[in-house]
Amino acid sequence: MTTQLTITRPDDWHLHLRDGALMASVLPHTAREFARAIVMPNLKPPVSTVEMAAAYRERILAALPAGSDFQPLMTLYLTGNLTPDEVVKAKNSGFVHAVKLYPAGATTNSEAGVAGLDGVMPTLEKMAEIGLPFLVHGEVTDPAVDVFDREAAFIDQVMAPLLQRLPTLRVVFEHITTKQAAQFVAEAGANVGATITPQHLLMNRNALFQGGIRPHHYCLPVLKREEHRQALVAAATSGSTKFFLGTDSAPHALHTKEAACGCAGIYSAHAALAFYAEAFDAAGALDKLEAFASFNGPDFYRLPRNSGTVTLVKEDWTVPASYPFGEHNVVPLRAGETLGWKLL
Ligand SMILES: NC(=O)N[C@@H](CC(=O)O)C(=O)O
Ligand SMILES: [Zn+2]
Ligand SMILES: [Zn+2]
């Protein structure tokens, strides 16, 4: 039985850091586990220009714990105003690594997103030309589509037509949650990859209603049936280079989760690698964790792999009931429960 695992220093390819005092509270968790992270731009107002991304990056760097060499990799929020010139500027900046699609109304702070892709085709064409990755929250927003079917519908209605139109566009299908998405990505060209979160590897939708309603298990895309969880585990542990680590750690203050209309987002940054180790261990695939966590992401983004290592040990520890989050608190995934893996 494996009791200790040393891997190349990993990165988180999908992270919400928020801003200000909230960011300062959660940033140390990510900086302890990861060398770099793709920082999502869904602030209010959204990070929609290179100038805004530069300023946000400076705020993150200023909030890092002393001695940390963590590097935030910035992204731009796709609004109807993002021009082809601005994506060229982004690519040339060296610190903006992608553009993010939030279909309007699909998720937290998506109001500024686009309703469809027709109006932004010149911008997407420019991205395909210069090789700037397009990160996609892949859910349709049509209220007539069942919430559990919105990702599968997105593949047929948006993702497949987009790639037919722009076959060389580099696309990351973010936080995939279904067997349809796993299969689509596996069968697509080398320009298409996907991130997978810890919660979608560890839980199915029963976790939303385990003995009562569980707001801290609610995220978007919402947890799916067990068959989908199994397909995601199979994809992550398959050895395919198309799938990589992206926690989608998305902190919300306790009172906004435990509410009549609670926010979507699961906080996992406090124990991200422990969660992935648990999922890969359960699948008997710990030997596949390093490529998923530390190689496939940088290779897709055409960035160097990290040097240095981190070590995980099979050792019980108890997750706190909450962590400070600015002047509030955030309830982490598995709050008050025991985890079997620990980052040294
Ligand atoms: N995943 C979530 O449930 N929430 C994310 C937004 C997102 O990634 O869709 C957030 O910013 O809170
Ligand atoms: Zn999303
Ligand atoms: Zn996200």
Order of helices and strands: EEHEHEHEHEHEHEHHEHHHEEEE
What overall geometry do the principal axes of the alpha carbons give?
Answer: globular
| Major β-sheet annotation | 8 strands, parallel
- Spatially, the strands of the biggest sheet line up as 2-3-4-5-6-7-8-9
Low-confidence spans: none
Bound molecules: N-carbamoyl-L-aspartate, zinc ion
Bin the helical content.
Answer: 25-40%
Mean pLDDT: 98
**CATH homology superfamily:** Metal-dependent hydrolases
Give the percentage of residues in beta strands: 15-25%
> What structural category characterises the helix and strand content?
alpha/beta
Q: Report the end-to-end length measured between terminal Cα atoms.
A: 19 Å
Rg from Cα: 19 Å
The CATH first-level class comes to Alpha Beta
The assigned CATH architecture is Alpha-Beta Barrel
> Could you say how many structural domains there are in total?
1
The tally of beta strands, per DSSP, is 13
- Report the total helices: 11
